[in-house]
């Protein structure tokens, strides 16, 4: 029985390490977005001050109109580039996260199945139907988790497609 407890402890430790890795990975994506936002904000602020100084120094209405149109034209291009960067970060982060979760889920399923098999082998005589019911419940639970993962993956794909469409519109 001690072997089963050790297997559960080892599985839980592995799952905790996996969770730590996934959390670190998720924060990595957030850090990239924060860095992008800071860089974009800093650039926008700098360009705004440069533009404001140029507007103050305009000598006539024609020069003012030229400055305004010159300021707005690259703004659309910069906005599209920003959306593209966000899309790249989101796609990369979600793809890595999904792969990691799928791999860890497969490992956990394998480890847990091994523990269940060990328990089934050491179960007392006459408990075969209870063990079979437990295995069936486990299979149903694992199928539900896989279904939820598929749904989550589809939701991420829909979100990524929406961001792609939005970037094309921009």
> In total, how many domains does the architecture comprise?
1
- On the 0 to 100 scale, the average pLDDT is 79
Unreliable runs:
none
Largest sheet: none
Q: What is the ordering of alpha helices and beta strands?
A: HHH
**Rg over alpha carbons:** 27 Å
Report the β-strand fraction as a percent range. Answer: under 5%
How would you classify the helix and strand content by structural class? Answer: mainly alpha
- Number of DSSP E strands: 0
Helical content (DSSP H or I, runs of 4+): over 70%
End-to-end C-alpha gap: 62 Å
Number of helices: 3
Shape: rod-shaped
Explain how this protein is built.
With 170 residues, the chain is an all-alpha fold. It has one domain (2-169). Helix content is 93%, strand content 0%. It has helices at 2-56, 61-121, 128-169. α2 packs antiparallel against α3 (128-169). The mean pLDDT is 79.
In short:
With 170 residues, the chain is mainly α. Helix content is 93%, strand content 0%.
